[in-house]
Write a structure and sequence with these properties.
The chain has helices spanning about 15-20, 25-40, 90-100, 120-135, and strands at about 45, 50-60, 65-75, 80-85, 105, 110. The chain is of the alpha+beta class and about 140 residues long. The protein has one domain (about 15-135): Aspartate Aminotransferase, domain 1 (Alpha-Beta Complex). The chain has a 6-stranded antiparallel β-sheet. The longest helix is centred in the last third of the chain and has 19 residues, at about 120-135. About 30% of the residues are buried. The mean pLDDT is about 90.
């Protein structure tokens, strides 16, 4: 079975964020670093070349494929900030309705800049997503 492409690395997170070209995206990346560190109580780890992750869980699909992933994280991409924070509890929909300007993917939240969203709501989304990953997805 193929190994996951996105694995933890030893690259320092601050070094990665300092190299982000767009100054707003770079500043938002450092702000998300502190927000997620505070909410999760975890230290950040680079997952692959561009994802800053917090916490870790093991998953196993019915197909037999399994691996490890960051519980929550983000990537300051050129087009937007991709946040990997979406749990699937009842609270998620209500929180997204109050968040501000954003788009969602399967388990991703996309925002252009932190100024577009309510940071209190974002903190709660991170908390809910982290708990979901650690409590629900992490079960053997």
């Amino acid at each position: 079975m193929a190994e996951n492409k996105t694995q933890p690395t030893a690259v320092p997170v601050e070094e990665f964020l300092s190299a982000v070209e767009n100054p707003v995206r770079r500043a938002d990346g450092f702000a998300l670093l502190e927000l997620m560190r505070k909410v999760t109580g975890q230290e950040p780890v680079m997952w692959g070349p561009s994802i800053v992750g917090f916490g870790q869980y093991h998953y196993r699909y019915e197909s037999g494929r399994e691996g490890d992933s960051a519980a929550v994280g983000f990537s300051p991409r050129k087009a937007n900030l991709a946040l990997y924070v979406l749990g699937y509890g009842a609270q998620t929909g209500e929180l997204l309705a109050r968040l501000g300007k954003h788009k969602t993917g399967v388990s991703c939240l996309y925002i252009n800049k932190l100024a577009d969203v309510d940071l209190g709501v974002l903190k709660e989304l991170v908390r809910v997503g982290y708990r979901y990953a650690m409590d629900e997805l992490h079960r053997p």
